[in-house]
Structures are given as C-alpha cells and as structure tokens.
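Student:
Attend to each token:
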Amino acid sequence: MSCWEEWRSLEFNAFPRLRELIIWDCPMLRGDLPNQLPSLRSLTIQNCEQLSCCVPRAPAITSLRIEGSNEVRIGELAPLLDILSITGKHQVESVMEAITQTKLTCLRSLSISGCSSHVLFPVGSIPASLQELTILDCKKLEFQMEGQHHSLHKLMIHNSCDSVPSFSLDSFPNLGRVEISKCEKMESLVVSRSLSCLPYLEIENCGSLKSLKTQWMASPQLEDLGLLGCPEIDLSATEDPHRSLRSLTISYCEKLLSGAASQFHGVTHLCIEGENESVKSLPKEGWLPATLESLKLIGITSVKMLECKGLAHLTSLQQLSIYCCFNLENIDGEKLPASLVRLIIDGSPLLGKRCEMKDPQVWPKISHIPAIQLFQQEITSAVTKATEQPGIIMDTIQEIQERHDTLIDIERSPNELHQVFLDMAVLVQSQGKQLHDIECHVARVNSYVCGGSSSCSLQGSTRRIPEVHIHWQFGIIILIIIILIIVLLSRNQEKSSQHILSVCHIHITIAL
C-alpha cells in the first residue's frame, strides 16, 4: 500500500480480537497505530520509513519483528515475548536497554541487525530462556563476557564485532551450532572450556582468522566443520588429530588440505570449494584422509586434471561428485578407486562431454563405476553466465544440486515402477477374462438366434402368413436387443481400457 498515509481508528479499542498484524512496504504511512490490541500475538512492521510511533500495547504478544522502520519506538517489552527480531540503530539500542530492564522469561529467539553505533551486549543480562542469538551487520557491537549462559544452543554472527579481534565462546558452554561469517577483523576463536555439546561449527570469509588451536580439544563432539574463505588458518599447527569429525567443508587452500589427512582421521565426507587460479591438478598424493566415503569438488574453476594417484589410497570412497569445474577436462593415472559406486559430473562440460562420448583416454578409467551421472543440458549457458558474473556460481551449483537430488529420487523408485507394471498386468489379465466372457456370451446368443431362426423356418410352411410375420418380427426384436447389449458391453470395455491406460500413466508419472 504505497499511498497509505494514515491509520484512522474511530474507536479506542477497535480491534479487540486481532491476533496478527503485518504492515509491510507502506513508505508513506505515518502517525500512530492502534494503541490497544489486547489479543495481538504477532506484530511485523517492515519497510515503513515514515512511521514514527510506539509499538502498540499488546500484553499477549509473543512475536515482534521490526525492520526498515527506523522511527518506530520500542517501549516496554511484553513478558510473554518468544521471538524478537529488530533492525536499525535506534531499535537495537532501545531493545538492548529494554532487555536489561525487563524480565523476559519466555524469550527463545533474538535477532538484532543493522546497527552502526557502538553497542554493548552484556551476556549476564541475556534472558535465561534464550536459545538462538543472531547478530547481523553490527560492526561495533561488543560482548561483555560476564558469567555464563547455559541455554543458548545456536549462535550466528555475520559482518559484526570488528572491535573484537579475539572472540571467546567460553560464556556459552552448551552451544550446539555456531556460524561466524564475514568478521574480517577476527583473528582467533578462543575456547578454554569444554564445549561438549557442539557438533556443528562453520566459519566463512574471515580473512584474518588464524587460530583455531584450542577448538579441537575443547569440542570433543564436533562432527561437522566448515572453513570457507579463511586462507590464513593453518591446521598443521594443531597438536592432536580431531577424531570425532565426520564432515569437513573447506576452501581449496594448500594450508588447509596439506593438514587434512593428518588432522582429520575419521572424516567420511569432504567438500572442497572455491576458486584458485594456481591449481591445475588435484588432489595431491597423501592429502586426503583415507577414511573418505564421499568427496565433492565444487567451483574449482582453474583445475584441468583429476589425479588418480591422489585418490588411490581411498579404499572406502563410494561417491565422487564434481560440480562447476568448468576447465576440468582429463583424468590422469590408471583409474579411479575400485570402491566407487557413483560418479556425478555436473557443470563441468569438458570432462562431461568426454565421458559421454566414451573418450578412450577417459572412459577406461571410469567404466568400472556402476552409476555414472552426467548432466550436460543447459551447461553451456550456465558456464557463460557464471563466467561473466562470478556471483551467481553458487546459484548455478544450487540448481545443479537440485537436479541431482531429483535424479536420486527417480533412481530410488524402480521397485515402485516394477509394482506399477505388475498391477498393469493384473488389470490386463482381468480385463482379458472379461473379454473372453463377452465373446462366449455373444456366441451363445448367436447360437440361440440361429436356432430360433431355424425353428421359425421349419414351422413357417405349416403356419399362416400373418403368423410367420409375427415370428420374424419377434426374432428381429430379440436380435436388436442382443446387439444393443453387445454394444453397451463393448463401450464399457473401452472405458475400462481407457481407465487402465490412465491409471498406468498416472502411476508411471508418479514413479518418475
């Protein structure tokens, strides 16, 4: 409602039963909102730049979201608030003040973003019920690490906390998921106490981050680790191998890969992403953990050669996936590991084409793999777009992954398709029996008509002409009735056959 300028409410308590209110993209709206909303449970105000009012009094509210509406004022927070999401300098400052002054016993999720001013976040004032904390685009936000918060399970920090070169997780001992991205000033992640519940850690585009040394020893349950766009991290400096880790996602970087085999003995799933102009072949011999069962290579645009020697020791490797490696065109060595049961090549047109054509330099090295999946349609246009606009490479990868997942679903349904054909056979057999019954019935009717006609002809000579006419008329009527019955049965048969074909078509469509 781009032209809406004022909310006029004639009554003081105009909406006593209103439970949800969303005001979205009303740039001209100004003035006040209804002040009393006793039944309101959820309020969302987004992109209302001119709106300057206080948040309505709603004692029963459980969800409050304000974004792109910098003049909206937040007073006292409702005690039943469960979800709070605030964007903007003034809102963040007022919310931080309100949190310290209000006893919020139900707050489960807190998200603050878009604050350019210096803000102190006292850990000791966080409601004890809080489980998820998200901080986005708050460059000058600073944590006051006083005490511990035992209920927080998920922490996400993006493009924030530039004033803190060293970030400590000691105040959140029960974290289950940590995501830190684009914190360019962060140099180290400090953990001096055990994080026994942390299975997932992702750090992305933190160019200055160098140290994760204490993280391995303090997180004995860490199973999934992602390190993307962090070229300064050196895993070789880590003392003990991290044996609980199962899934590792890293950018292509020699510092990271050279220590992967020695530091991650138990890793079964490895994903290597990102562009690197210097690498022409991979992987190097001895780099990858011998326990790998799945290996993905994504968006490594400079690589031209896949080295069999670097994969030869992977005796448990079952799946190799290659996505958007646009210049990859050859496989060097004898052949890929014998343990492989699936090879996926998508968005890599040079190698994909050679595999499709069974090129003698490539095909003998992969022909032993039971399932080889090549996605070559629309690859050329995708490569062109990704080359011209590097920012859409991940979108291309996502599209490819979705197509791959669809194919996997199709492959999982052969038993269902087999069952469909069995059902078709049963139906056809049943309909065939009905056709046989109809033929027998027609034969009996024909015999009856012929017998009646013979009787009429034998008796015709002894009867008067009118009686002969009567018998012939009677026989013709019976014959017409029989013909009508046969026609109706034939039409029913046609409908049944059409229904069979329709059912089969539906079953096959569902299976595919």
In short: The two ends are 44 Å apart (CA to CA). Residues 414-460 form the longest helix (47 residues). The chain has a mean pLDDT of 76. Residues 23 and 45 are 5 Å apart (CA to CA).
